[in-house]
Structure formats: structure tokens, C-alpha cells
Amino acid sequence: MSVILGIDIGGSGIKGAPVDTETGKLVAERYRIPTPEGARPDAVKDVVGELVRHFGHQGPVGVTFPGIVQHGKTLSAANVDQDWIGLDADALFTEATGRDVTLINDADAAGLAEAKFGAGAGVAGVVLTLTFGTGIGSALIHDGVLVPNTELGHLWLKGDREAETWASDRARERDDLNWKQWAKRASTYLQHLELLFSPDLFIIGGGVSKKADKWQPHLKPERTPLVPAALQNEAGIVGAAMMAGQRAQGQDH
Ligand code: BGC
Questions:
Q1: Is the CB of 76 within 6 Å of ligand 1?
Q2: C-alpha 170 – ligand 1 centre gap (Å)
Q3: Which CATH class for the 119-230 domain?
């Protein structure tokens, strides 16, 4: 059994748990610390350090981030403090924890976990996971292999609106939409994605995944099967641990 600590940085909470990366199961209860106001790098770094100490964890750590992550650097910050842009967050967290940290985009982590252990387990071909929350995150996976940082929440629809500002869960709350009205917007978005990617499966994750009974009957891609995420708020933690595990294995060879 290979156990790796996964940490998921979200807008309201930073959550961690040790994960058995062979089964995708948490091996201890999740521990959650509220996200510090403004989610500035130094404050978030301290929370990540506290989580690692809480579990007394040895070995590599996987950490999610709600923005572009390339070669350990955070390159966008749509819903967090702008100081993250261009920051070597991998080095920041490595220093704070004294562990080998692997950073991954939050939706990429959720998509990896769903594809291996959740709603996409055993599905061949192109699996597109979308997380609807404060923003819209995306994870494009082909036969289990992730194409990182697709950022499809920032796709422009009909020329003048960004998908996540119009169809995220936050947009639903802001515009006081009922689930059917929200699903109509989300369907327009999914139909556009179908045209671009022809997925074999859509997985709908993020905050809305807990309410699938409300939107599922109204969410209508034209030709692609669609399922709610299965791992819900554990997906980020599990995917972060999987990514750190993959990197540690790669380094062993
Ligand atoms: C960010 C993505 C992130 C998504 C969900 C978007 O605004 O650009 O990187 O995955 O929100 O948190």
C-alpha cells in the first residue's frame, strides 16, 4: 500500500487526508482548515504546513491549486489573490513543509481521481470532467492520461461572455436561477464542448455534484453520456495524492 498526503486548496476550506493511491480511499479522516481571508500565498502556505504537521506525515505531498499550474509555478488566479501569478508555489510549499510537494490544478486532480476511482472508472477514450463551483474547472483525460491545464471554464461563448462567469454555480446563485434555468445555461456550454472535443463521457463535479437529482434531468448534451461525479469533495485530495505518487514513482526509475 502506498499512502500519500493529498491537500485540496479551495475558496472556503483547505482540506487534507492521507490517501491509499492504489485504491483511492482516504486512510484517515479528512482535516479541514478554513481558507485564510483573501487566500494570499503566505497565509495559505502556513495552512498547508499545519495540515502536514497535523497528519505527522512523511513522504511526498500532493497539493491542488485553483488556477494554472505549470512546472511548479502558479500562472493564473481567477478566484484567488493575484500574488499567486508567476509564483514558484512548489518551492513555497516545499519550504513550508520540508516535503517533496507536487502541485496540480484542482480540476485536473478531480478529473484524474474520477477517471481512475470514480464515475469514469473503466471508461475508455475521452473523459471530460467539469467542476462547477466558484468558477468552472476542466480536466481532459484520454485513456487515463491527463492533458493538464485545459482551463475550459474560460472559453468564450457567443462572443462576449466567459463560460464560468455565466454558467458556474456562483453565477447560478448570483443570478438567482433555479436548477432548470442553470441547467439550460450549462447545457449550452456542454453542447459547445461536444463540438470541440467529442467526449465519450462528461463527468459533472464541483459543488453542484451533491445536488445531481435537481439538475440531472435538465442537463442535456446532444450526444454525450453524462454522469455526476462520484467522489464529490474527496476528488481533489485523491487526485493530488495520485499525482504526487506518479511523480515519486517517476523519480525512482
Ligand atoms: C480556474 C481554474 C480552476 C477552476 C475551478 C477557474 O477559474 O481558472 O484553474 O480549475 O476555476 O477552481
A1: yes
A2: 12
A3: alpha beta
